[in-house]
Amino acid sequence: MKPVETSRTGGGTRALRPWFLVAALILAWFVGAHGATSGCTTVAILREGVVPDRATLEQAIGVAPEPAQAVAVAHEAARLKAMAARRELAFPLGVARLLLSTALVVACAMAIAGRPGARAFAMQAVVAYAAYAGIDFVLSRPIRAAWIPEVAAAAAEIAKTSAAQAPFADVRFWFWFERLRFGLLEVGAMGLTLAALAAPRSRAFFAAVATEASRTRPDEDEDP
User: Fold this and answer.
1) Tens-level pLDDT at each residue, the chain (224 residues)
2) Whole-angstrom distance, CA of residue 3 vs CA of residue 219
3) 127 close to 72: Cβ distance less than 8 angstroms
4) Which of 18, 64, 72, 183 is most exposed, with minimal Cβ within 10 Å?
5) How far apart are CA 142 and CA 154, in angstroms?
6) Shortest CA distance to 119 belongs to which of 62, 199, 45?
7) Domain ranges for the chain
8) Euclidean distance between CA atoms 28 and 105, whole angstroms
9) Would you give the DSSP letter of residue 169?
């Protein structure tokens, strides 16, 4: 039996893996992980039909929240309330976010590990997530229009005792925040990841992975 000189991700193939590919995949992995957590929370709350209000969320903290934390709690409560009011829209979007984010996490992990066929799967997952993010942003406009004024009003109340929270009392801040979040963390991150996967050095890396896998498979089959 011929010994296997290197593993699928070791030796020569590991040396071919470009640093920008790893960085882009890690970024996309974090976006997917956050999306999966958000989607799971949305689906669980809307399925149970019990939406926690601001007081309930503050009690869950266990201590009196700091002003910045109080704004975050008000934001989450207002967002969940707006989604519950439009459950017929928010629930399927939450399910889609959960599924596509999970697929993105798995695809990025496989690509980072250098699994054969992972590049095609990762590119499909990235494109699917970016397409979903665009659809979700457009369809969720009524939900944003409902929760942004509410959280801005809550921030204005908190700003009476903490001037540092005054910027959060402006509805324009939240609208632009959501646009930047969508443009940078969703579409932007997916665009960078897709470009990294399509780069010549990345193609060479995954081609080497596929070649090494095809060489080692016959040797593995010969093992007693």
Assistant:
1) 333 344 444 445 666 789 999 999 999 999 999 999 999 989 998 988 777 777 777 666 665 578 888 888 888 889 989 999 999 999 999 999 999 999 999 999 999 988 988 999 999 999 999 999 999 999 999 999 999 999 999 899 888 888 888 889 999 999 999 999 999 988 999 999 999 999 999 999 999 888 887 776 655 444 44
2) 8
3) no
4) 64
5) 19
6) 199
7) 17-214
8) 8
9) G
CA atoms within 13 A on the CB side of 4: 18
Structure tokens at 66: 């700091």
Are 75 and 53 contacting, i.e. CB atoms less than 8 angstroms apart? Answer: no
What is the rounded distance in angstroms from the CA atom of residue 21 to the CA atom of residue 81? Answer: 39
Question: Could you give the CA distance from residue 221 to residue 196 in angstroms, rounded to a whole number?
Answer: 34
Interatomic CA distance for residues 124 and 194, integer angstroms = 9
> Which tokens sit at 47?
């399925």
